[in-house]
Design brief:
The protein is α/β, with parallel strands linked by helices and 300 residues long. 35% of the residues lie in helices and 17% in strands.
């Protein structure tokens, strides 16, 4: 039996209703836990600095993602501009912090989705989608009318609102959040929100409740479920041990996780020791061994 994306199980009326609800939230924006309550429909911007309409920096068949997303023909990745986090080590800071990109209307965004499908991509990978949920849902309704039938990947930083995630229930097939920090002080100092660990834990539980463990087809290509990304930081600043323990105990003992080793001092990181140095190999392997010993499903 062929895979059917979650959103195709919703009626056209329900999908449009979700898009309408997301658009209404922009009048006093609470899409993410910052709850800035600015009127983005009138040109006001909040913490993420994003306008009401979508802004993208690029889109392509991406081969640098997890193998379960890349498959044979690549992950259909749309890189959205702006972010609700202020990571001082962001490797894409021109996009996330400085707003490099171009605005697109919902018709154009729908055509981008369909073009990625026409290019044989295995999924539509929405990178940093949180500020742009309204435009994404509006574009999705148009793309469905145009024949879109790929899994949707919600590729986010982990700082998510439960209310917004519930709005996405039955639409998103694959959630791929970061889990950046365990310690609130580290989160506030290096990415902005002191409540990041609390909100990320709650968001992960909601995501797991919606889509469950990662499920792949006979070729090992992801169709649904949760994939957690955890970037190992120098001096265990991310709290990798505690993150692994949490995932094992409270998400799933078979949670799919990518323990990432690619940290280097980008953007403003050199001003914030110990982030002013590259990751040591031993630091990465200790974190990876912890996840392996816990029995988690390690990707890559």
């Amino acid at each position: 039996m062929s895979f059917i994306p979650a959103y195709l199980n919703l009626s056209d009326k329900e999908l449009k209703n979700r898009a309408r609800q997301a658009r209404e939230i922009l009048a006093s924006c609470t899409l993410c836990p910052w709850e800035c309550q600015v009127n983005r429909l009138e040109g006001e911007t909040g913490h993420c600095r994003a306008p009401a309409e979508a802004v993208i920096s690029s889109y392509n068949a991406h081969f640098g993602e997890e193998p379960e997303l890349v498959g044979f023909y690549g992950s259909g990745t749309i890189f959205f501009t702006h972010c609700n986090l202020d990571c001082i080590f962001c490797q894409n800071w021109e996009i996330s912090q400085e707003g490099s990109g171009r605005p697109v209307n919902v018709d154009q965004l729908a055509r981008v989705m369909l073009s990625l499908q026409a290019n044989n991509c295995h999924n539509i990978n929405l990178v940093t989608p949180t500020p742009h949920i309204a435009a994404i849902l509006e574009a999705l309704t148009l793309a469905v009318d145009g024949g879109l039938a790929l899994p949707l990947v919600y590729n986010c930083g982990g700082y998510e609102s439960i209310e917004t995630l519930k709005l996405l229930e039955g639409i998103i097939d694959i959630y791929m959040p970061d889990f950046k920090y365990w310690d609130p002080e580290a989160a506030q100092k290096h990415s902005g929100p002191p409540d990041y660990p609390e909100k990320a834990r709650a968001a992960l539980k909601e995501m797991q409740n919606q889509v469950g463990d990662l499920d792949t087809d006979h070729n090992g290509i992801a169709k649904s479920g949760v994939i957690v990304r955890h970037l190992v930081l120098p001096d265990n600043l991310a709290g990798s041990d505690q993150v692994v323990d949490f995932l094992t105990r409270e998400i799933s003992p078979r949670c799919a996780v990518n323990i990432m080793r690619q940290y280097f001092p980008a953007y403003k990181a050199r001003e914030y020791p110990p982030l002013d140095r590259p990751l040591k190999s031993v630091e990465y392997f200790v974190a990876r061994k912890k996840a392996a010993d816990a029995g988690l499903r390690i990707l890559k």
